[in-house]
Design brief:
Elements (H helix, E strand, L loop, with lengths): L10 H4 L5 E6 L7 E5 L5 E3 L10 E5 L9 E4 L3 E3 L2 H11 L19 H16 L5 E11 L6 H11 L4 E7 L3 E7 L2 E6 L2 E12 L10 H21 L3 E11 L2 E11 L6 H8 L7 E2 L1 H11 L10 E5 L5 E5 L3 E5 L2 E10 L5 H16 L8
Antiparallel strand pairs: 1-2, 1-8, 2-6, 3-5, 4-5, 4-15, 7-14, 7-18, 8-9, 9-17, 10-11, 10-16, 11-13, 12-13, 15-16, 17-18
Length: about 375
């Protein structure tokens, strides 16, 4: 894979400074966009309902806390082409002031034995009919490879995952996060929106029409029913398409797409709080599963399985679920992956699914430019 040596040169020098920014590319587009907050710190919010149509790049955690607030990176600068972004980074990176990152929380990987123990707890609750579905996730921490470059990894992600929302954001409070996610949480403008029900996972193969297991189809159907219910609560009409098989890296998923209209009086924060967290990252019943995961999963998901994306006033809103991602963890990198658990789930299969999902980010770390 040949990377443009000049594209976004200076990006790594900007990371670790006092300036907050988000560099992202929407699915199917060729150029990235850049939002930079040059003055002050990103706005912090403590409730999803508080998110408004104020312009910026929103970053929300799985569960809001003082450690992981909702952030809005204000667009003091907004650039919408690779050429203008490269020019800005070249001129600005040398002026960036570095800050002390030693205060960032250092995380350790969730071991297989620990995962299996939590899986047994989740599975027991499912067999007791306490939940229809639960999502069990884990993190995986590795040493930064020699010569690691955020710029190179972002460019690789852009080339490998053309149908994903590819992003890199940095704030002094969070450090650097990067990801490539196929899942829309909310996209649209002027009262007309799109969302999806994405669930079920298999390794991609040569089959045009893959055979989906009962477990995978059941897992995706849980999300579909949830989306129908949520949309129906604030929209009189919607269209549903699918499920279709979509490719995300080396994996395939089942996806149903919903288009719907809402009153312009309905706030963005209200809609986002109605959807998040979906059963694709949490479970059902929603609130009960949400608290159960927070109490028993065994680690802090932080901004993994939250949501993020650009909100540009009355222009289009593009907010995605933060799925395949990694973040800076001192001199290490922490990656995340999860999967839906149903009563018929097997721990070996679920662990392997998380292994497969981790490859989305891990394959970016293997240099293949020469």
């Amino acid at each position: 894979m040949i990377l443009d040596s000049q594209k976004f040169a200076g990006l790594d020098r900007l990371i670790g400074g006092e300036i907050s920014f988000a560099l992202f590319r929407l699915p199917g587009e060729s150029d990235f966009k850049l939002i930079v907050q040059e003055k002050g710190e990103p706005k912090q919010l403590q409730a999803y309902e508080d998110i408004s149509s104020e312009a910026g790049f929103v970053v929300a955690p799985f569960a809001v806390s003082k450690m992981n607030p909702i952030l809005l990176i204000h667009p003091d600068i907004y650039l919408d082409s690779d050429a203008t972004i490269s020019g800005y980074l070249k001129s600005s990176a040398n002026q960036a002031l570095k800050i002390d990152t030693e205060n960032f929380a250092h995380e350790v990987s969730v071991a297989k034995a620990s995962y299996a123990k939590v899986f047994d707890l989740f599975n027991k609750e499912l067999h007791n009919n306490s939940f229809d579905k639960l999502v069990l996730s884990r993190n995986y921490t590795i040493e930064k490879p020699d010569g690691f470059s955020w710029r190179e990894n972002l460019l690789r992600a852009g080339l490998l995952y053309s149908d994903a929302f590819v992003y890199l954001f940095y704030t002094p409070a969070t450090g650097c996060w990067m990801g490539a996610t196929p899942e829309i949480l909310l996209s649209g403008s002027e009262g007309i929106y799109t969302t999806v029900a994405l669930a079920g996972t298999m390794k991609s193969g040569i089959s045009i029409k893959p055979e989906w297991s009962t477990k995978n189809k059941g897992e995706q159907n849980v999300v579909v029913r949830y989306m129908r219910e949520r949309i129906g609560a604030f929209s009189d009409s919607y269209e549903e398409f699918g499920p279709d098989t979509i490719k995300a890296g080396d994996l395939i998923h089942l996806k149903s797409t919903f288009h719907f209209k809402v009153s312009k009086d309905l706030s963005l924060g209200k809609m986002l709080s109605m959807f998040h967290p979906t059963p694709a990252v949490c479970g059902l019943p929603k609130e009960k599963a949400y608290q159960f995961i927070i109490d028993h999963e065994g680690y802090n998901r932080s901004y993994y399985s939250g949501f993020l994306g650009p909100v540009m006033d009355k222009e289009a809103i593009h907010v995605y679920v933060n799925l395949r991602c990694m973040h800076e963890n001192g001199n290490k990198l922490t990656l995340y992956a999860g999967g839906g658990i149903l009563p018929q789930s097997e721990v070996t299969d679920e662990w392997q699914e998380t292994e497969n999902k981790l490859q989305t980010m891990l394959r970016l770390l293997v240099k293949s430019d020469n």
